[in-house]
Amino acid sequence: EIVLTQSPGTLSLSPGERATLSCRASQSVSSIYLAWYQQKPGQAPRLLIYGASSRATGIPDRFSGSGSGTDFTLTISRLEPEDFAVYYCHQYGSSNTFGQGTRLEI
Amino acid sequence: QVQLVQSGAEVKKPGASVKISCEASGYTFTSNGMHWVRQAPGQRLEWMGWINAGNGNTKYSQKFQGRVTITRDTSASTAYMELSSLKSEDTAVYYCALGATVMKAWGQGTLVTVSS
């Protein structure tokens, strides 16, 4: 099973700042099979990025994804108040596994 | 727009089974697949399995193989997930999520509490 490890566990930033979230895989993941989701308290996850770098429908362009192999990054260029949430990476190339999440807090 | 509406919260005793429904609308049900994912309190998301809503083929996580059954009713545009031999560790929010690979849209979640 491919284990995804996200860092940091918690990221404290302010609106307007840039956020960089990391996802490291225990084995190489084809970049076409790496996604990112946002989850707010009491809500279901929402797809942000798929194929490592493609934004899902309706996702603002301040969200971007990059990476390959075992190292992937989600970047939020300028934080808006509604961006404070938990973010999960997901690999779907070899079964399906998720990272443990990064909490983005003010 | 795509909507996935799940059945309501359940409370079950250890050893029992639970069956959760996920009614889909806003797209062609049989042209897509449906995942089931759960989230125990304070834990990461955990994939349980997937069904091809067109032909009914299923894939299950090894962890849940033998305990989980995913089915669908195309006439009702509804997918189902049944989990048997429940244990307290199965207490979690269970989600259905639309997609063949990536999970494009999610249901609102169903809380299953397993307690004696």
How does this structure look, described?
The complex is a heterodimer of chains A (106) and B (116). Chain A has strands at 4-7, 10-12, 19-29, 34-39, 46-50, 54-55, 63-76, 86-91, 97-98, 102-105. Chain A is mainly beta. In chain A, the strands form 2 sheets. In chain A, strands 2, 4, 5, 6, 8, 9 and 10 form a 7-stranded mixed sheet that branches. The radius of gyration of chain A is 13 Å and the shape is globular. The mean pLDDT of chain A is 95. Chain B is globular and about 40 Å long. In chain B, a hairpin with a 5-residue loop joins strand 4 (33-39) and strand 5. In chain B, strands 2, 4, 5, 6, 9, 10 and 11 form a 7-stranded mixed sheet that branches. Chain B has strands spanning 3-6, 10-12, 18-25, 33-39, 45-52, 58-60, 68-73, 78-83, 92-98, 105-106, 110-114. Chain B contains no helices and 11 strands. Chain B has 116 residues and is mainly beta. Classes of the chains: A mainly beta (106), B mainly beta (116). Chain A binds chain B through residues 33, 35, 37, 44-47, 50-51, 56, 88, 90, 92, 95-101, and chain B through 35, 44-47, 61-62, 95, 97, 101-109.
Q: How much strand content do the residues of chain A show? A: over 45%
Output the structural class of chain B.
Answer: mainly beta
Low-confidence spans of chain A: pLDDT under 50, at least 5 residues? none
Largest sheet of chain A: 7 strands, mixed
**Helix count of chain A?**
0
Gyration radius of chain B, in Å: 13 Å
What is the ordering of alpha helices and beta strands of chain A? EEEEEEEEEE
Spans of at least 5 consecutive residues with low confidence of chain B: none
Residues in helix, % of chain B: under 10%
- Dominant shape of chain A: globular
Termini Cα gap of chain A: 34 Å
Radius of gyration of chain A: 13 Å
Largest sheet of chain B: 7 strands, mixed
Topology:
The complex is a heterodimer of chains A (106) and B (116).
Chain A: E1 4-7, E2 10-12, E3 19-29, E4 34-39, E5 46-50, E6 54-55, E7 63-76, E8 86-91, E9 97-98, E10 102-105
Chain B: E1 3-6, E2 10-12, E3 18-25, E4 33-39, E5 45-52, E6 58-60, E7 68-73, E8 78-83, E9 92-98, E10 105-106, E11 110-114
Parallel strand pairs in B: 2-11
Antiparallel strand pairs in B: 1-3, 3-8, 4-5, 4-9, 5-6, 7-8, 9-10, 9-11
